[in-house]
Design a protein that fits this description.
Layout (H helix, E strand, L loop, with lengths): L1 E3 L1 H5 L5 E8 L3 E2 L2 E2 L4 E9 L4 E14 L6 E16 L18 E3 L4 E3 L1 H11 L38 H10 L1
Parallel strand pairs: 7-8
Antiparallel strand pairs: 1-9, 2-5, 3-4, 5-6, 6-7
Length: about 170
C-alpha cells in the first residue's frame, strides 16, 4: 500500500487526495486475511507533514478461544497518523531524523507506505480472545469434547483431592 505523494507535498496546505483501496495483503503478522483490505484513505497536506485518515475493513481467520473451531470475523481499522517526509521536496536536502523518533516517514523517493500503520492498528483491533458466538460452551476440560456438538460423559463432580475434606463438609451441610 504505497502511494507516491510528491505532488501532494508540492501542493498547498489543506490540499487533499482521497484513495479507494482494495488490496490483498495476505496476512497480518501470521493471522490470515480472508478478504482483501478495502476502504478509503484520505491524505491532507499539512504545513510540514501529510495527515493520513484511513477507514479500512477486512475479514480474518481466527480460532475460537473456547471451542477451538475456525471462525471468520470482520476487522475494522480506523486510524489517523501524520507522515513526515525524510527529504525536502524542493531541494532534495534531507531533514534531520532523531533515532528515537517513532513517527511514520515518507521515504526519499516520496513514497508513503501504509503497511506498518495497517499492521500496528490491525493487531490492536484483533480480539484478544475471539469466540465463535456468545453462547459457545467450549471444550470439556477432562476429555476435550466440543460441548457445542455433544455432551460428554465425564463426571461433572470431580473434586481436587486437596479439597476433598472441604467437599465432605459441604455435603454434610446438605
Amino acid at each position: 500500500m504505497e502511494f507516491n505523494v510528491a505532488q501532494l507535498l508540492k501542493a498547498g496546505v489543506g490540499d487533499t487526495r482521497v484513495y479507494e483501496i482494495c488490496e490483498d495483503i495476505g496476512d497480518l503478522d501470521g493471522t490470515q486475511l480472508t478478504t482483501a483490505l478495502a476502504g478509503k484513505v484520505r491524505m491532507t497536506r499539512m504545513p510540514r507533514t501529510i495527515l493520513v485518515e484511513a477507514d479500512l475493513k477486512t475479514k480474518i481467520a481466527l480460532t475460537c478461544s473456547r471451542c477451538l473451531e475456525e471462525i471468520v470475523q470482520p476487522l475494522s481499522l480506523q486510524f489517523v497518523e501524520e507522515y513526515e517526509p525524510t527529504v525536502d521536496i524542493d531541494t532534495g536536502a534531507p531533514f534531520p531524523v532523531v533515532d528515537t523518533d517513532e513517527r511514520f516517514r515518507i521515504n526519499e523517493n516520496h513514497i508513503l507506505d501504509l503497511a506498518e500503520a495497517v499492521r500496528e492498528y490491525g493487531l490492536l483491533a484483533m480480539p484478544m480472545q475471539p469466540i465463535c458466538r456468545p453462547e459457545c460452551k467450549g471444550l470439556c476440560p477432562e476429555c476435550g469434547q466440543n460441548l457445542n456438538i455433544a455432551q460428554c460423559t465425564c463426571s461433572a463432580k470431580k473434586v481436587d483431592s486437596r479439597l476433598a475434606t472441604l467437599q465432605r463438609l459441604l455435603d454434610e451441610d446438605d
